[in-house]
């Protein structure tokens, strides 16, 4: 009996709560509505309400959101920051911001002004917004369980010091960053101490520094993203337990450009990615216990630059096609493992037809060692003597690290 | 002078070696363009070929031609014709015919399959290389009356520029690798026309971006109009120096 009454109480509370949800009102903001100001509408709104903004341009300075409401833009309303401070400052959980165009955020060297800032909140959704000409685009700090999806962030950065990041996460957990397009900022996507997050289907291109940049951000999953033509490609550092899968790294060219730079990354999986036309496909420094498999390396300068302070990295079932240098290293200690990759430069044979070559392949050429040690010798690329040297060295290896070898190279592209 | 050039040309066309050379280049370049599919890659492969075979064939053909037409030259010297004119006509005759063969064999396929600025540089480089190595052949030929010795010197010159020089420079770069060598190595390339031509074409191909910091530096130098004109100017010097010095030797020495 006691039990039953407790159940009834619980059910009535639930029903009451549901009733509250249904009663959540919708406030409208537009040029001809009773409400013409977003700020006022927010002041009037109760937790759980929605505010629908229909068209128009709003110049209301920094708008603070301190209660759980939905701010929904219809017919592309514009929030103009007029280069004064920030635009949306979200300091409450369960807030949704959707369908706005935000533009003109002040560049400041003292504070990181953002078009949308989410601070100390959870379950915030930032969906389908367009951000133009902002210092920082979307800035999440000490947030968790948030979603940033379908936004287009386009900046007009000219210098690294005078520009911010498109999507910036600092001390966050369990964030979903999905289907965003970011360009023209310092870093496209920047994570610092952001953990257990999911980054999927984003396009990051034409940023001054890195397309993706993260540090101390363990346990993240990066899937199906495209990083293209960024100043220095993608750089990730001091992190463990990440998964990078089905991403495309392309056209990161120039003196300091990498497809993917890994520094002190460990226990991670890099799988099914494509590296096309990068100065260096993957550059690994101090990285250990990585599983690099089934990636495509096509037409890169260096497909893999593996510094000798890396250990226990495994390269399996990758395709190396049309790269100037397949693998380069800077020393003779090799503590990594190559197996079953396809190398287009491999000229061995397969007598027993098991689809693996009978002769081991040495992906490091003498010339690549020389270039690593004496960069100016790069000007002898494709000269007769270099070809000759490499052929001789391949037959009788004496300078190239003897243990850096793929013992069973694949005869066919994987 | 035009008349002598005409006779030299007739003579060259009659012995069919130049014709064979044209066909050889034509088959190779058409093959390369149809094999790879990507015209840029074909230009790259063609570059390797041009830098190896064109100097060799130019220098060997020009040396043998010079010695074979020794009697003809002696005959002309007996006439009231300036020796310089005789020498230059011989030079122009050989250089023009070999360049024409090159233009037909490589220039036309490049124009048809891979017409681009890089293609143009490749063809220009090839023509310059032809002129340079014919000039070197003539220099080797006027130094000695002995045909075997002349051909030996010519072959040695080819070997030096195609292979040995690069080896020496690589050794120097390696030995002095503690010093900043970017500009020094740039200066060293100017001392070898084959390197000059290779870098000129390579840096105008997209692969240059893949060569890291040093590549970017070279590209910023060679990529500009100024750099390109400088490198072709250097190649012109490489033509003029052996031609003028061998002309001087030829007009002074006892035939």
TrEMBL record, chain A:
Metabolic or biological pathway: Protein modification; protein ubiquitination
**Keywords tagged on the record:** Repeat, Signal, Ubl conjugation pathway
Give the matching InterPro entries.
Answer: NosD_copper_fam, NosD_dom, Para_beta_helix_rpt-2, PbH1, Pectin_lyas_fold, Pectin_lyase_fold/virulence, SCF-Subunits/Alg-Epimerases
Check the record and name the Gene3D superfamilies matching this protein: Single-stranded right-handed beta-helix, Pectin lyase-like
Q: Does the keyword Signal apply?
A: yes
A Pfam family this protein belongs to? NosD
Q: Which residues form the signal peptide?
A: 1-24
Question: Which residue ranges does the record assign to the Periplasmic copper-binding protein NosD beta helix domain?
Answer: 159-348
Q: Which NCBIfam families match?
A: NosD_copper_fam, para_beta_helix
| Protein's recorded name | Nitrous oxidase accessory protein
Protein's organism: Pontibacter ummariensis
Question: What does the record give as the organism's lineage?
Answer: Bacteria, Pseudomonadati, Bacteroidota, Cytophagia, Cytophagales
UniProtKB/TrEMBL annotation, chain B:
Question: One MF term from GO for this chain?
Answer: ABC-type transporter activity
Arranged from A to Z, the UniProt key words for this protein are: Membrane, Transmembrane, Transmembrane helix
Question: GO CC: one term?
Answer: plasma membrane
Query: Highest taxon of the source?
Result: Bacteria
Q: Does the keyword Transmembrane helix apply?
A: yes
Q: Membrane: is it a keyword of this entry?
A: yes
Give the residue spans that cross the bilayer: 12-33, 45-70, 91-114, 120-143, 155-176, 221-244
Protein name as catalogued? Cu-processing system permease protein
